[in-house]
Design goal:
This protein has 194 residues and is of the alpha+beta class. The chain folds into three domains: 1-46, no CATH class; 47-100, no CATH class; 101-194, no CATH class. Helices cover 31% and strands 13% of the residues. It has eight helices and four strands, in the order αααββαααααββ. A two-stranded antiparallel ribbon has the order 1-2. The chain has a two-stranded antiparallel sheet with strand order 3-4. The longest helix has 14 residues, at 12-25. The radius of gyration is 23 Å and the shape is flat.
C-alpha cells in the first residue's frame, strides 16, 4: 500500500479512502492499518528516518551547523524562506536537502546473518583469472587494496558506489520542479543485500 501512496498524484486523503474500502472487504480482525498516519507510524521503527536541511535556492550553501540560524545565503544573498502568505506562521524554505544517514543502514545490513554474509563475500570469493564477476575482481579494487592494506584487511569494511540522477517528480509538464537524488550503493556485497 505504501508503494501505491508513492504515486505523487495520490493524496493522503485518497490513500485513506482506498484503505477504508480495503478494510471493508477484508475479514474481521485484519491487520491492515486504518489510515496513512497509522501506516507511517508502523514503519518508523525500521529506522528509515531522514534529516532535513534547508539549502540556498541557488545551491551555494546548506543551513547547517554554524549556518543553521542564517536567513539568507552568505554567497548570493538570496532569502532562505519563501514569503509568507495569509496568516501562516510557518516558515517554508525555498529548497531542502533530505539526508538519509548511512551508518544505521549499514548497521542494519550487518545485523542479519544472511545479509552480513553477503556484505563480506568480496573477501572470501575466489576470482577466476580474466573473468570479472564482481567489482572486487577489477584492477581498481586490487590497486585500492594494495594502497590501503589496513582498510582492506578488515572484511567488514565496505566500499560504496555513488550515483547521482535528476528526475521530475510531477511528470514532464511540471518543468520548474525537479529532484536530484544522490545515492550511495554498497558494492561489497555479492547479491541481494541492498
Amino acid at each position: 500500500m505504501f508503494t501505491i501512496k508513492s504515486d505523487p498524484e495520490l493524496s493522503e486523503a485518497g490513500y485513506d479512502k482506498i484503505i477504508e474500502w480495503a478494510r471493508s472487504i477484508l475479514l474481521e480482525g485484519n491487520r491492515l492499518k486504518e489510515n496513512f498516519y497509522a501506516a507511517k507510524s508502523m514503519i518508523k521503527p525500521f529506522g528509515l528516518r531522514y534529516q532535513k536541511f534547508d539549502m540556498c535556492l541557488n545551491f551555494y550553501m546548506l543551513y547547517y551547523l554554524e549556518n543553521a540560524e542564517l536567513t539568507e545565503c552568505m554567497t548570493c544573498g538570496h532569502s532562505r524562506y519563501k514569503p509568507r502568505t495569509g496568516r501562516g506562521k510557518t516558515l517554508v524554505a525555498y529548497k531542502e536537502l533530505r539526508y538519509f544517514p548511512i551508518t544505521p543502514r549499514l548497521q542494519r545490513l550487518f545485523k542479519s546473518p544472511r545479509t552480513a554474509e553477503h556484505m563480506t563475500w568480496h573477501q572470501s570469493h575466489h576470482a577466476v583469472d580474466g573473468v570479472m564477476v564482481h567489482p572486487s575482481d577489477s584492477e581498481a579494487w586490487k590497486h585500492f587494496n594494495n594502497v590501503h592494506p589496513h582498510f582492506s584487511a578488515e572484511s567488514r569494511n565496505v566500499r560504496l558506489g555513488l550515483c547521482i540522477d535528476r528526475f521530475n517528480p510531477f511528470g514532464s509538464f511540471a518543468a520548474p520542479y525537479s529532484c536530484w537524488s544522490v545515492i550511495l550503493t554498497v558494492i561489497t556485497c555479492h547479491r541481494g543485500c541492498v
